[in-house]
Amino acid sequence: MSSVDAPAIPAERRLHPWSWLFVLLQQLRQFVVPLLVLLVAGRRSTGTDWADLGPLIGVGVLVAISVLQYFTYRYRIGGDAITIRSGLLQRSQREIPFSRIHNVALHQSLLHRIFKVAEVRLEAAGGEKPEAQMRVLGLDDALALERLVRHRASAPAAAATAPGDTAPPTAEEEADEVLLALPVSEVVRLGLVSNRGMIVVAAAFGLLWQLFPDERWMARLAQDSFEQAAGYATALHLGWTGYIALAGTVLGVFVALVRLLSVALALTQYYGFRLTEAGRRLTVERGVFVRMRSSVAPRRIQAWHLQETLLHRWFRRRTLRIDTATGGHHDDPRKLRELAPIATPESCDALAARLLPEGTWPPPQWQPLPRRAWWRLFAGAAPWTLLIAGGLAWKLGPGGLLVLLWLPWQAYAAWRQAGRMGYSVDASLVAVRGGWWSRWWRFAEIDKVQALRLRRSPLDRWLGTATLALDTAGAGNMSPPLQIRFLPEAEARALHARLGRALATRRLRW
């Protein structure tokens, strides 16, 4: 073969020239505590300014490592894969086929946006780390790489672009269809129905506990605050009615402040939320200061989760989440998890029906559990109440038995939950619903189910019930899990055998 006929080898590329700065900042965040300890301990031991050289040397080493990583990191875009070379003394080369990339995530902090760059993560199925993490690329290069991955991952192998051909897709392939866009009013509703503000309050309390680990200091602070509040209330001479009204007012102000904090956090994280579809891939973009952009192919979705709390129902809204078999931690905010952070029930159902291959959502009919399943729910919770009542009665006397007044409420809640529980199994989809105060739906395509488990606890064996659990890739940590609980044993075994035969004759789809 002549040199003219030989296929052109694509050229290697480097990261953005400022990439070393962002690598350095990431390393400084990891080593800031040891550097501070070295500075403080060095000054205490020597008492001279020479102790400042230790942290400076450490920072200098980190700068050298960051610059070295820039000069030793290369990537090449081929016809069907991305090749990444890195390392100086210990060199590594990775081939990442486009067909294996499940998710492309672009992350932009405020500093990224100032320099017009972005961090790119390429994620495949499984694992705790992404297949590649490019820190950082120019924004135009990052968006072009995302479009290229989206285009080639969905294209047939025979139609793959020639190596080195990085021409962007056509206008039709680039056209994004907006499936969901959240205006500011919807983001405000999301903040009102979420508990993000309470999470921040709990985190602040934990930080104070870490900064002041002395329990006596925390106890004194709480005691002094209570005594000051009690003294102020006593000086007002309000009486019992006034005290109750004052306590209600304080509680209401606290709840209002927490909700306002939740709204502020929701606006920060979800402002400008857009869910689009193009080239058989879904893309979500959101955020104000930190701009997130993540994409995944609908066929990579392993399971679905609809949630509707009491506050959701007041606003006639729901939340639609998905599970994908991509790497990274379960709570990584850069993963595409929410297709609809908040939307009407009709919009959530229409979105799920559109993206499921056969449009089988919602199920035409739900199979309810026998109403006696309430006894199984009640029997699992009542012993704990009895145990707590016995312990309080032993410590405090007969007054501790007042906890037993909780048992009627537990029985009523179990009765209502049993009335809501149900499941649906057809030729393509298995779905489970539950909850009463806070309702939820979990469903997955049968072709995505990897394993079945039939579980029976000692209480199940006593009451003649069983639980059928279904596992999908990437959905093992989701709550609630995909399982049909408290079925009569014969019904559970029959359903287990039916689904087992279906899985044996069908191909697992990732």
What Rg is obtained from the alpha carbons, in whole angstroms? 28 Å
| Count of separate DSSP helical elements | 15
Instruction: Please identify the structural class as seen in this structure.
Output: alpha+beta
Strand order of the largest sheet: 6-5-4-10-9-8-7
Share of residues in helices: 40-55%
Q: Beta-strand level of the residues, as a percent range?
A: 15-25%
Strand and helix map with partners:
Elements lengths: L18 H28 L6 H20 L1 E4 L3 E6 L5 E6 L5 E6 L1 H6 L1 E7 L8 E7 H16 L16 H4 L2 E5 L2 H10 L2 H16 L3 H22 L2 H32 L3 E5 L2 E6 L4 E6 L4 E8 L1 H5 L3 E7 L13 E6 L1 H11 L11 E2 L4 H24 L9 H15 L1 E4 L3 E6 L4 E7 L3 E7 L2 H6 L1 E8 L10 E6 H16 L6
Antiparallel strand pairs: 1-2, 2-3, 4-5, 4-10, 5-6, 7-8, 8-9, 9-10, 11-12, 11-17, 12-13, 14-15, 15-16, 16-17, 18-19, 19-20
Features:
15 helices, 23% strand, 510 residues, globular, seven-stranded antiparallel beta sheet
Please provide a brief summary of the model.
The protein has helices at residues 19-46, 53-72, 110-115, 139-154, 171-174, 184-193, 196-211, 215-236, 239-270, 310-314, 345-355, 373-396, 406-420, 458-463, 489-504; strands spanning 74-77, 81-86, 92-97, 103-108, 117-123, 132-138, 177-181, 274-278, 281-286, 291-296, 301-308, 318-324, 338-343, 367-368, 422-425, 429-434, 439-445, 449-455, 465-472, 483-488. The protein has 510 residues and is of the alpha+beta class.
